[in-house]
Amino acid sequence: MYAIVEISGQQFKVEKDQKIFVHRLDEKEGSEVSFEKVLLLDDGKNIKVGSPTINGVSVDAKIINHLKGDKVVVFKKKRRKGYRVKNGHRQYLSEIQISNISSFKIKKTTKSDKSVESKDNADTKEKFKKSPTAKVKKTKDLTSMNVTDLKNMAKENGIANISKMKKADLIKALS
């Protein structure tokens, strides 16, 4: 059984009792951590692929120790110019051991749950049925008008500073 999990922005293929080095984690040495961003799970029989992650699956691990990686040398040079710069760094890492890959069942909704949800959805749809269509027609009418007509309409409605406004600003103010 293995899983592909995202840890600190990187993806790792992990199995139980495997030790891996990841970017430094905030937890202390010896503490247990759990990663929920599981992208793929293979249990030997089935392969589950998430879109982007699989719900209800987590990878548990124990932080063994914090350490620094090997030295990385960054050398820059431009030939015939006398430009040479040598820099380097050591990456902060955490060594973790995968203790468990667990998947728990997600409760499936029943027909009675769906009927309650559909009633709630019908109530909310009735509330918002009238207002959006009226605004859409009004804004379509405003977009077909030219700027001078919009400015005249804004003067009638008492909107200030219309001389500096563009067409889009006038439409927003009139809506």
Question: What does this molecule look like?
Answer:
The longest helix has 17 residues, at 111-127. The chain has helices at 111-127, 130-144, 147-157, 167-174, and strands at 2-7, 10-15, 19-23, 32-35, 38-42, 47-49, 57-78, 83-103. Residues 130-137 have low confidence and may be disordered. Helix 3 (147-157) runs parallel beside helix 4. The protein has a four-stranded antiparallel sheet, with no helix packed on it. It is an alpha+beta fold and 175 residues long. The protein has two domains: 2-103, no CATH class; 126-174, no CATH class. The chain is flat. 29% of the residues lie in helices and 41% in strands. It contains four helices and eight strands, in the order ββββββββαααα.
